[in-house]
Amino acid sequence: MQVQQLMIVWSFKLLLAGAQDRTITYLFTRTCAVEGSTVLLPCSFTPLKSFIIDGINVPLKIIRVRWCRNHPVCQGDTPSVFDSDSLDVDPQFQYLGDMEGKCTLQISNIQLKDEATYRFRMEANDSAGHFTNPTGVMVQVEGNPVMRVTGSNNSEVREGQAVSLQCSTSPCSFHRVNISWFRDDHALPEAGPTLHLGPLTAKDSGNYSCALGTRTQSRSDPFSLQVEADSEGETSHRILGVAVAVLVVVIALAALMLFLVIKRRRSAVSRSAEQRHRGDVVLPSGPNGEAQRTDQNVEDVSYAAVHFKQKKPSRELQPHADDVVYSAVVTRG
């Protein structure tokens, strides 16, 4: 009898220990969403793998998952926004989890009537594996939130710069909500939470505002953007600076070209003089005292002077110098 009681006590302790292993975790327990937006409720769970009864280890398997609204336990015939056993699926509520550990719920186009506390429940092939986290996630829905426009730069910018305008609201999420933009109460073709402008011109100046879709009652207060044009003095200085820079470049190029031309001409003159020096050869003076010039390709000729004297002159010699006879000797190289 005592042995049986001990077995019951130990089985109950093991059951409690196994129950402690069952967990459902919500990433946050409260959130806020703008009406018409899409909301994610991140969730994860750890199921009980097995339990012991009468000394036997009984394995468990999750066979059903549910999300309920405003019910502390989410069991029995409690209405569910999602039930894996139901064929009637509401497309507004999409289960992004599985049967093993993920239990995220997505709510699309959330409305004011959807404001509630949502809880997840898992059910196994034995009631020992059933579990609901009663904490749940409280979802608050904002119908007409106050929108606000902020700029990446100051409200005063210069032409040529770029700026980004951000449309935001209170901590409420407005994921997948169409954001409309206006300038001076005129609708702009751009849409989305961020408006990119640039390069800016004077015509981009104006009062910018944003709103949730076509709901004009949610339009933000205007954000004044003033695009300042460059002053005439700054423009003149810039033009003068560019002109001076261009003039310096042109002068430098002209000087370089002149230097190259002079260098080329000097080189040509030097080569021409050298060729003439090599091509002409100056010979000794001829009979008339004139220098003779011949080309290097002609045979080289050398002249020699020969003196003849008579021992017994037959006639009176002229008082001039000895007669000179020139003989040409041809030398062949």
Automatic annotation (TrEMBL):
Pfam families: Ig_2, V-set. The chain crosses the membrane at residues 239-262. Residues 273-296 are annotated as: Disordered. It comes from the Eukaryota. Residues 1-19 form the signal peptide. The keyword Transmembrane applies. Keywords: Membrane, Signal, Transmembrane, Transmembrane helix. Residues 145-226 form the Ig-like domain. This is Ig-like domain-containing protein. It comes from Oryzias melastigma (Marine medaka).
